[in-house]
Amino acid sequence: MTVSRLLSRDALASVVVFLVALPLCMGIAIASGMPPAKGLITGIIGGLIVGFLSGSPLQVSGPAAGLAVLVFELVRTHGMAALGPVLLLAGLVQLLAGMLRLGGWFRVTAPAVVSGMLAGIGILIVLSQLHVMIDSSPLASGLDNLLAFPGALMDAFSQANGGSASAAGVTGIGTIVCMWLWDRHRPKALNFLPGALVGVTLATLASMWLALPIKRVELPTNLSHAIDWTTPHSLSTLADPQLLIAALAIAFIASAETLLSAAAVDRMHTGPRSQFNRELSAQGVGNMLCGALGALPMTGVIVRSSANVQAGARGRTSTILHGLWLLALVSLFPEILQNIPIASLGGVLVYTGFKLVDPKAIRNLAQYGRIPPLIYIITALSIVLTDLLTGVLTGFVLTLLKLLWSASRLRITLATTGPGQAKLHLHGAATFLRVPQLAKALADIEPGTHLRVCMDRLSYIDHACMELLEDWGRSARTQGGELEIAIDEPLKHRVEGRQRTVLV
Question: Which of 32, 96, 386, 387 has the most CB within a 10 Å radius?
């Protein structure tokens, strides 16, 4: 394929990505409690800068719904000015992690926790953006939004005669219906058009035609007016431990989401594979720039990336150009965006949030037992009932407990093989957690018995269990019994410092 043809395919793909990114950049900014222009700045940096530096050429970077909840809480608690220093630190952590080649470690995340995190974020986005859809302001927590929504809805209906809330609600619902219908019945010739753009465009035209009295996007006539430079003085706020924790949380979640997305994008095409450490460093540079400009945090985003691949992109040119189109539109034609109803963008995020709560994830996790779906549900509910960081940590703790339980499972079978003879079969892993279980089995053996302990199906045995067996053997010798332990060759190397096959 010639260079000119590759560039033409990337140019066409960039238009598709631009159309997908435009409503999402603004909608995620509103969901984060920030002006829409902040999301557009992040999208521009994600295209022009991170697209050039990226280690995953076909991945698109920009504001992500996965961080909207964390940013909303940060801005609500500490103010918009605190976001810049936090992002600078988070980006620096990502940059150093990439330079230290730690990219692979950010991918060591249990699928149940990741899916549960996305589901919890999806629920929180839906609960908050339902308020935005009726031109109301979302509250601090998901539970508060859930409890307050019936009252807000009643207020909307009570203003049905000319009230803006009911008109905004119809606009938001109309956007969702358009997206749903377009995703299921779009003509093949228009397959490149994303449902979000179709829904927002139709909702905007209808609201202008009907002159609906609803809130619309507010953008400065000059994008530079939306930039809030982070000053050296504002960096002193990082002395607050809560902001340090927020920076580390953003760095971890953004990195995990980026690298998981990059791995997913690699499975969609046969082109160049992702360089995870380079991608992590590029994201760090991008987030440091976003922090310096007071914009939203960025990650690699799967929706825009998959649109990029499906549109036929072959290199990073598509990602870079989509950032250029965003910059051109915001700089040259801001009045077009100023007509978009905020309720319509809220509808886009509600639709996106519902898609994050994927029931198929539970079915997929159920293939690996009952515990992974339970971790998924508990992680999601913890995020909704507490906050994002607490919910994710809860999922990690549950995963570690499951790992500990799985690694210490031991099945003990005692069989009598003849007069004064018995066999003890051990299956699984014999750790100190199973000492009481093993002690109980040994206590049931008659004095004077010749006991053969079979370890051919034992994956591991630690010092505590070996000491227990040896103590029993010494006691058995005084009563005319005998202990024989058969350790197969692979297990020898997992017995702590013991290289014997028979103990008496």
Answer: 32
Query: What tens digit of pLDDT does each residue of 374-433 get?
Result: 999 999 999 888 877 788 889 889 988 888 877 778 899 888 888 889 999 998 888 888
Q: Which amino acid is at 129?
A: Q
Q: What is the pLDDT of residue 3?
A: 53
Give the 3-state secondary structure of residue 416. strand
Residues in the chain: 504
Residue for token pair 């040896």:
470
pLDDT tens-digit map of 339-381: 999 899 888 888 888 887 878 888 888 888 888 999 999 999 9
Cβ atoms of 297 and 254 closer than 8 Å: yes
Q: What angle do CA 327, 329, 331 make, to 5 degrees?
A: 65
341 DSSP β-pair partners: 216
Of the candidates 354, 350, 347, 349, the residue with the CA atom closest to the CA atom of residue 171: 347
* 484/280 Cα distance (integer angstroms): 54
pLDDT in tens, 151-178: 877 776 675 544 678 888 899 999 999 9
Give first-to-last CA distance, the chain, whole Å: 74
Give the pTM.
0.75
Tokens of 304: 């825009």
Contact between 127 and 349 (Cβ < 8 Å)? no
CB 248 within 8 A of CB 70: no
Label residues 338-357 b or e (16+ Cβ within 10 Å = b): eebbbbbbbbbbbbbbeebb
Burial class (CB in 10 A: 0-12, 13-18, 19+), 441: middle
Is-contact 366 103, C-beta < 8 A? Answer: no
Parallel, antiparallel, or unpaired: how do β-strands 450-461 and 482-486 relate?
parallel
- Residue 217, SS3? coil
- Residue 159: what pLDDT? 58
Contact 29, 257 (CB under 8 A): no
Round the CA-based radius of gyration of the chain to a whole number and report it.
29
Kindly list the distances between the CA atom of residue 177 and the CA atoms of 89, 180, 181, 341, in Å, as whole numbers in the listed order.
Answer: 41, 5, 6, 16
CA dihedral 400, 401, 404, 408 (to 10 degrees): -160
Q: What angle do CA 122, 125, 127 make, to 5 degrees?
A: 110
Question: How far is it, in rounded angstroms, from Cα 261 to Cα 91?
Answer: 18
